Structures are given as structure tokens and as C-alpha cells.
Amino acid sequence: MNDTIAAIATALGSNAISIIRVSGEDSIEKVEKIFKGKKLSQVPTHTIHYGHIVDNDKIVDEVLVTVMRSPKTYTTENIVEINCHGGIAATNHVFQLLLSQGIRVAEPGEFTKRAFLNGRVDLLKAEAVMDVINAKTEPSLQLAINQVSGRVSSQIHDLRNSFSEIISHIEVNIDYPEYEDVTELTNEDIKPKLLTLKEKMESLLKESKVGKIIKEGITTCIIGRPNVGKSSLLNCLLEEEKAIVTDVAGTTRDIVEGTISIDGILLNIIDTAGIRQTDDLVESIGVKKSLEYMEKAELILFVLNQNEPLTKEEEEIFKKLKGKNYLLVMNKSDLKQKMDFSLFPKDRMVIISTLTGSGISELKKKIKELFHLNQIEQQDFTYLSNARSIALLKESIRFLENAIQGIEEEYPIDMVELDIRYAWEKLGEITGETYKEELLDQLFSRFCLGK
């Protein structure tokens, strides 16, 4: 943390501009040694200066250098950003000159890691930085921006403060029972407060499922027996010839994937091998993978040929859908109906033709209804949105439930306090107020260089 680091913050290639970011206590002085222009150690903070990067007396590049002094910077350290001409040779030459001054190459995410360790951002905000960079839709971008702004962190801090008040009151009662001016706190006094906290946390958890959908999309699996039109459906949804379509059963033997957006929500679609009994080794592996994907999917599109009666294989597949989010896609509406539609729930059924394209818009509408996408408030995306924070929130709720159960079973108040404290600590892990060093290494290693 005491050394100076640098990274190329833009993608290498034939660009108009490349940006090299340098952070550390002596970053300004070290960049000054290879900069010909104004004396950077004497310029005001947050100013931009024209000049040249030089290698001894040789001009390497014409640049603009931004100087930002501690503490009002991204890392809270002194930061210098060099805007040089794009291109691999020029950028690398400037970067190598920086390294020759004793500056170290930054690790992935190290700038944001320093921002966290120096108290500039919490873990939720830090994770949201990468979410902004990786956002593929407007809703996912708004979700990330709200996390960067601290709106989500504020909710977690408020919950922790409520827990802190309860914990501190319990400890005063335990440690200083002789104080007459301290109200004695009993299990029955705590229980209503814990129930209120549980209600707030469960509401946040419920909303966060929406946040996960906004950020990551919906994992969608297309299943069915061979030759019912699964690959054709994928092609229709993607509006491109992604999957090979033939009249030969078993053409799709491996997984074919694609992504579409419905009102800003991504559908990560997987076209699977046709499910049937087969002696073909390669096809049987594909069928096994299809069944595995079906178990993991958040949405299953079960494609049936409405021109044929229901088969026993399809009956077995339909039984496996119980308790899952699914839609029955009755394909080949351009042919005569031979399927008995009364066997299926009408609200889960969509009739389409992948040949003519009819019914595809209705299918998208059904997906929106199934996941209540129309009810997502476009103005307010104050949700937890990543698996780490959602898992920690679930753990916190579990400890809180243990505390409530302990009260109901008349456990001593000091034993109940243990579970309350564990719940409080788990909330702290969400924002990084309590953390483990290996967690930081794992989290920030996923960041890009220069961030």
C-alpha cells in the first residue's frame, strides 16, 4: 500500500487516446521525471497540463497529464493520469518509462482495492464499479450506478445500526446490572424489534432477486424431444441462424447459446440436445447435459410439436417441470393440430410457428408476465445484485431467525445475543465493515487492469 502503482486503463490497440493511471504518495514526482512541460510538483490539484513524455532527451509522445492530489482522488492517494496517443508502441514505451522510475505494475482491481482499504468506498460500491463497466442494458447500468452512489449501502448501514443498538443495550444490562438508570431489557422487549428487522431484511432479499435478474438476466433452457423445433425457436428469438436446423433427429448434440433482451432484461438462452433414448454415445452425452441444464435453469421453454400427439417421453419431461418456471411452446401452428391441449394449463401455453414467426411476440409477452418484468420500477433500482451479498443477507436472516427462536424457547438473553451479533457481522461483510483478506484478493482479482 506504500508503493506507487501504474496500469494502462484503456484497451491496447489502434485508439485515438490511451490513458495510463498512476497512484501513490510519490506518483507526481515520479511522473515529473519523464515529463517535459510544467513542473508537476508545483501545479494545483485537479488540473491538466500539456507537454511531452521524454526518454532522456528523446521525445516519446505528446501528452496531456492530469494531476490529482490526495485525499480527493479515487484511491485517496496522489494520482496522475497520462493521456497519450493511442497505439501499442507509444503506450508501451510510456508505460515502460514509468516502470523504470520504480513504479510497480498494478494488480487487477488494485486501484479500487486501495479505494476500499483507504475508506473511499465500501465493498458494495467497489463491486458496483465493475458492474458499471460490464453493464449490457440500461436497467443493469442504473442498478450499478445506484450501488456506486451508496443508496444500497445506506440500507445495510441502517440495518446494522438497529442491530448495534440492541446489542449495546443487552451488553449494558449484562455488564452493569447495578445501574438503576439503565432500563432492563428482556427477551420480550427484544422480540418485536427483531421481528421488525426480519421483515425489512426479507423485503430487501425479495427485491434483490429482481436485482439479480436485472444484472445477470434469466437463464433460459429450451428443451424437448428431437425435431420439435428447439433450434428453430432459438433462431427465431435471436433473429439469426445461430443453431443448425435439419429434418434429421439428433442434429443438436451439444449446447448452443445466445442472448436476447426483453425490455432491458437479458434472456441467456440455451438450446439443448433433444431428449430421447439413444444408443449414440455422443448424442446420449448431449441428452444428459440437457437434463442437467434443465435443473439449473430459471426458465424452461418446453417445446412440443402440436401436429403430433403427446409421447410418453414428453409426459415424463412434463412431470419434471413441477415447481419450476416454465412455458409450454406449442410449435408448428402452421400444421394441423393433433396435440390434446386440455392436458396442459392454459396460462402456461403459447402457440407458435417457427416457420412463419407467428406467436413469438406472444411468447415474449408470456415471459414478461411470468417474471413480472412489467412491475420492475424503472426509476428505483435500490437492490443487492450479486450472489455474494445476497448469500450474506440470507445468512444474516438465518442467524436472526435463530435469535427469535431462542427467545421463543426462553434462552438466556446472553445466548440470544450471540445470534444477534452473528447477524450483525454478516451484514458487515456485505459492505466490508468486517472482512477477510482472502475475500478481498478473490473479489478484486476479477477487476480489469487500471480499475
Question: Please, could you describe this protein's structure?
Answer:
There is one protein chain. The protein has 451 residues and is of the alpha/beta class. It has 2 domains: 5-121, Probable tRNA modification gtpase trme, domain 1 (Gyrase A, domain 2, 2-Layer Sandwich); 123-432, Rossmann fold, CATH 3.40.50.300. It is built from 14 helices and 13 strands. A hairpin with a 2-residue loop joins strand 9 (256-262) and strand 10 (265-271).
Key terms:
single chain, 451 residues, alpha/beta, Gyrase A, domain 2, Rossmann fold, 2 domains, 7-stranded mixed sheet, 6-stranded mixed sheet, 14 helices, flat
What's the SSE blueprint?
Elements lengths: L4 E4 L8 E7 L3 H6 L2 E3 L9 E9 L2 E11 L10 E7 L2 H12 L4 E2 L4 H8 L5 H12 L3 H12 L1 H25 L11 H30 L1 E6 L6 H9 L17 E7 L2 E7 L9 H16 L2 E7 L6 H9 L5 E6 L17 E3 L8 H11 L16 H22 L4 H19 L5 H8 L7
Parallel strand pairs: 1-7, 8-10, 8-11, 11-12, 12-13
Antiparallel strand pairs: 1-2, 2-6, 3-4, 4-5, 5-6, 9-10
Query: What is the count of helical runs?
Result: 14
Largest sheet: 7 strands, mixed
- The portion of residues forming beta strands comes to 15-25%
List unreliable stretches of 5+ residues.
Answer: 242-254
CATH superfamily of the largest domain: P-loop containing nucleotide triphosphate hydrolases
What is the molecular shape?
Answer: flat
Intertermini distance = 15 Å
Structural class: alpha/beta
Please write the CATH class name of the largest domain: Alpha Beta
**What is the third-level CATH name, the topology of the largest domain?**
Rossmann fold
Main sheet: strand order: 3-4-5-6-2-1-7
Cα gyration radius (Å): 29 Å
Taken together, the total number of domains comes to 2
CATH architecture title of the largest domain? 3-Layer(aba) Sandwich
Query: Mean pLDDT across all residues, rounded?
Result: 83
Q: Please count the beta strands (DSSP E, at least 2 residues each).
A: 13
